[in-house]
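Q: I'm writing up a methods section and want to include an example of the input and output format. Could you take the sequence below and give the corresponding predicted structure tokens, formatted cleanly so I can copy it straight into the document?
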Amino acid sequence: MIIIPAIDLKDGKCVRLLQGKKEEVTVYSGDPAAMAKHWVSLGAELLHVVDLDGAFTGEQKNFDKIREIRQAIDIPIEVGGGIRGIERVEKLVSFGVDRVIIGTSAAKNPDMVKRACGKFHGKVLVGIDAKDGKVAVKGWVEVTEFDAIEFAKKMQEAGTAGIIYTDISRDGMLTGPNIEAMEKMVSSVNVPVIASGGVSRLDDVRSLKQIKNLWGVITGKALYEGAMDLRQAIEITKAGK
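A: Here is the clean output for your methods example:
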């Protein structure tokens, strides 16, 4: 299991939202590339980058900042937020993004996911954001009737390289992850699963580490607020290996 720092981009800045609400925004840095370098200096092996403007509007508005992050560091990055078509996947891959995350479009247009997975083998992940076990889309504004587990199985069949599973009731709240829901997701699919949402302290990392076959854990607010030390979190994941 690896720890994956999150860089959420809004208006070109590194921010965090409270439970995905665009009006509940905290700005942490005006220089996302410098923030990326900071996390790499502390031992990050992968960065999770989200274009929040893209997630809310369906239009990427932070391509330049994503490119700057890509050029600033030499570890893999995964990027999501507002990726509604294959041409956007292609654009991100063209300037060196290692993995592209499709969220809303996966629920709205599963055939697009299948085509993207076929064209960019191993580079397409599906982000599943769930509230009470149901898939949420459009920057969490809309909750669908799709069951998150059944949807994950469909995305596995479509060829996704992995699932990023977020419990949106926990995200940004520093309340701890939903261990039971995460265990259920990991045990239901064969592709790698990355946990996201609610990771607030080192004990949460220890708890998630107990989930057999959990591939990685994304954390954002806890790192930015100083509630969790990245180096210590990484040490926990390496211990006992």
